[in-house]
Write a structure and sequence with these properties.
alpha+beta, 4-stranded mixed beta sheet, 4 helices, 45% helix, binds copper (II) ion
Length: 247
């Protein structure tokens, strides 16, 4: 999982980056021959396409990127680039039409609107995070005779700080034959999963943001069982190293 892993989807993404670079150079070249604004707009659109597909590729290839960076890129950078790309294509398309004069108003207004929207969303997200940082969601309490796992941007019970996913964390030791109750509380802003090899394998468990899940089972088989997330999520890598040890 760590480092480079090239799948067919990634190859497609790589091809998209290459094509957008070629098209960008093509439109810059066209501009040097005929200095028309539409070629500048096309070049801008292809630069945005290239940057957006390159960002997606980097996110897909490098699993070790921090969740805060992944979130910023996914929530703000890529949508903004895609918006600018559409704007660039629209400008190029309307360049020689009667709507051209309207572009002088539309383009700056659209860019200003995008800037305000991104800033507004960012500030409201930062505000809601700092507002909820103090308290855990209701239902988020340690079961008597059980375990509480709090999922946040730092993994399960801050597993990043404990060297996840290379080092196992959290590790729960329980005697064979005992009943285990685990409450998993999701304080992260995206849905996460929770699975335990053998014991919690049958059904894909998903926990929505601000929700908690309590699972109970009989630890009848001895051994070390991996605790992990099985749904795609921004902090996926950090949720791959828990361990239930039945002795
Ligand atoms: Cu995940």
């Amino acid at each position: 999982m760590i480092g480079l892993a090239l799948y067919s989807g990634d190859a497609l993404q790589l091809a998209l980056v290459a094509i957008s670079v070629a098209l960008m150079l093509f439109s810059i070249n066209a501009y040097t021959r005929r200095s028309e604004g539409r070629y500048v707009a096309l070049a801008v659109a292809f630069v945005c396409l290239c940057a957006a597909s390159a960002s997606t590729l980097v996110l897909e290839l490098y699993a070790g990127i921090g969740p805060a960076t992944v979130e910023t890129v996914e929530l703000y950078l890529i949508p903004s680039l895609e918006f600018l790309m559409v704007l660039g294509f629209l400008t190029a398309l309307l360049w020689s039409s009667r709507f051209r004069s309207g572009l002088k108003v539309l383009v700056p207004v659209a860019i200003l609107g995008l800037g305000l929207l991104v800033t507004g969303t960012y500030l409201s997200n930062v505000g809601s995070q700092s507002g909820s940082a103090g308290g855990l969601p209701a239902m988020c309490s340690k079961p008597s005779d059980g375990f509480l796992i709090v999922a946040s941007s730092l993994g399960y019970n801050d597993s990043v700080g404990h060297g996840a996913p290379v080092q196992s964390w959290p590790v729960m030791d329980i005697p064979q034959g005992s009943n285990v109750t685990i409450t998993i509380c999701n304080t992260y802003q995206a849905s996460i999963g929770f699975q335990i090899v053998h014991y919690l394998q049958g059904k894909v468990e998903t926990i929505a943001p601000g929700q908690a899940l309590t699972v109970s089972f009989l630890a009848d088989v001895k051994g070390g069982f991996l605790i992990y997330c099985s749904i795609p999520c921004p902090i996926h890598l950090y949720l791959q190293g828990g361990e239930l040890t039945v002795v």
